[in-house]
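Final report, results section. Input specification for complex C-07:
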Amino acid sequence: MTESAFRQEVREFLAESLTPEIARAGELMTSVFADFDATMDWHKRLHRKGWVAPDWPQEYGGTGWTLSERYIFQEECKLANAPALFAMGLQMLGPMLIRYGTEEQNNYYLPRMLSGEDVWCQGYSEPGAGSDLASLITAAVRDGDDYIINGSKIWTSYAQHSNKIFCLVRTSKEGKPQAGISFILVDMDTEGLKVEPIVGLDGTVEQCQVYFDNVRVPAANLVGAENQGWDVAKSLLEFERGGHNFTIDHKKQMAKIDRQASSQYSEDNTLWKDNPIFAAKLSDVAVDALALEFTELRVKGAFEAGGNAGALSSLIKVMGTEIGQRFNELSLEMMAEHAFVKQLDALLPSFEGETIGPDCGLTTMAEYINNRSATIYGGSAEIQRDIIAKRVLHL
Amino acid sequence: MFIEYSEEQNMLRDSAERYLRDNYSFDSRQATVKQASGFDAVQWQAFADLGWLAMTFDEDSGGFGGGALETMILCEQFGKFLVLEPYLESVVMVGGLIEAGAQPAIKEQYLTGLIAGELQGAFAYLEEGSVADPTHVKTIAEPSADGFILNGSKTVVLNGPEADFFIVSVITGANHKDSSQGISLFVVTKDNPGLSLKNYKTYDGRSASELHMTDVAVSNLALVGELDNGFAIAAPIFSRAIVAVCAEAVGAMDALLAATVDYTKQRKQFGQSISGFQVLRHRMVDMFMEIELTRSLLMATAWKLDNNAPDAEQCVAALKAKVGKAGRYVSHNAVQLHGGIGTTDEFSVGHYFKRLATIGVMFGSRDSHLSRYSQLSAQVSS
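Structure output:
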């Protein structure tokens, strides 16, 4: 199939399956997460079509698409305002289980992940272990056929909606800190596990702290061998960094900026798009976004040739998030005082009341606020720069 | 130019700092944010009792005769403690406009109440479509037998939900593109028939309204300033308001830098305090330099406004542009260096960040003030 025929097929599917309500949830995203119910509705529609996990090998439920087709699919979905699916299961744990899981684990977990029956969250960071993840202290102590887990995990995205959590836990204090870490799968409804929401700066809950008080987990839930969890996690971080396409995010941001600049007036009574200072600033960011797009295409080319992104994935994470933040700043400047209005109800896809200010500015302040965390999570901008310094420049 | 503060000015700063430190905790502030009311009435009364609300009014208006420097001194402390109470909206803007241009009977009636903390005001000057430009006015006032009839809508009226009365900008005469000609200001009370409000909270924890007027009748007495030329009195009030929010920004940035220095010393990763990492040390040094440059501009601008210096307005533009840049740099990096905790509602850092975000675009963005600075500089040199 040609790429244009494939794109047409995706568009036809979106036209019939992406309902206005689901698309509205995607349009109203103020972070990497969309409304939970709408997201799961979309997840199930994609699952019925067989398109929920394009990045997986075909024998496990993938689509068998080329890298280019996967890119086209992502782009069409995002620009049509489809909600982003929750990444922790499909993008992170799934590929990792396929690589490290036992046959029994894969047979049980992968179909449930595809169907949306299981919603996964990630238990990595701890209050005392963020950038220095290897210093984590949440402990799993062997007791017969089980482990008993004590400690806590923080910045656990959407734990309040999840029924499963994959965790890094300490199983040994011997040797280097990385050497005593294991990777384990935990049922959220196990006795002793407690989820406490963390209210974010926009007033909504996306993050949680998860507490473990003598949580008993079967040893069969270990992924990889005991004390081999760091290697498993490292492969996951590669999925996290390599799997995300920032260019598509930037295109969605630019489409919104275009709507704002074509409808809102700047100080001298001209549309923002006709304000030369603003136009120059927008181009400044857009040129960096274009350079990043070609960088992502270089990486894609390297993948297609059987190679890997190497430390370019750190570059892409730093620049992708920082460019995104600069787009948020431009939106805030255009919407000005209208961005101040806090109307959380109006950000729900089901909202039918009257909103305040222009529709294209509803998400502006929340996006600006929430996106500050993009340079903190998933390896901070400082950590990513360290990786480039060490691995590329050998400093 | 070197500013030597008077004994009274030093006392004002010290007493404001002491009062807020002892009585205005972040936790009590957050409790107020979560209430329906936009501010704490007990605090507002305390501000009145301390003489803060009277500080910048002339002595014959019942004030203490302070100027831009006193506004700066108070607002810097308000920024440092993230004060929610509407000093900017009610005192600096509405109080300033009433004192500058209201008819004597109105002035006496409203100014006494504002200074005593009994009345609240809000300035309704923004409209849908072009919030970036206060001279874009579509709301109209048409003459009637004994005054004017007002029709139209105002958006994001800060302190609107708490206001007993409003000053609204309206078109009364021929309005030219890019000009404030033809715009007049009127006092309208909250209970004026035909006036309706839609109230809400803002992301920085304050409150605001959409204000709608259908055939609102006001008397000739309600006119503030000259007919068709309300911006003659509004322009200096906007300059004073810019000093107020920029002083607030400096106070907020001071608080953020102190919190960041403190946090990075305590936070240990990779077996050491993260304050030991050179990249973070230099980041904090850059934050410090941005803050001190802004502080210099702030002090000079307030001093020049009080002394009617010929380049005062140029300094106002420079100050607001500088705050746009510095506020962003300092607040973004304060959040970044705090990591996850800086993005939570529970911790104060993110609330300073949100206030700096609103200040950054309020009364014109950095770019508009850079343009204004460039225009004013060209005028001075030609």
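The first strand of chain B starts at residue 121 and ends at 124. Chain B touches chain A through 54 residues (CB under 8 Å). This concludes the modelling results for the funded period.
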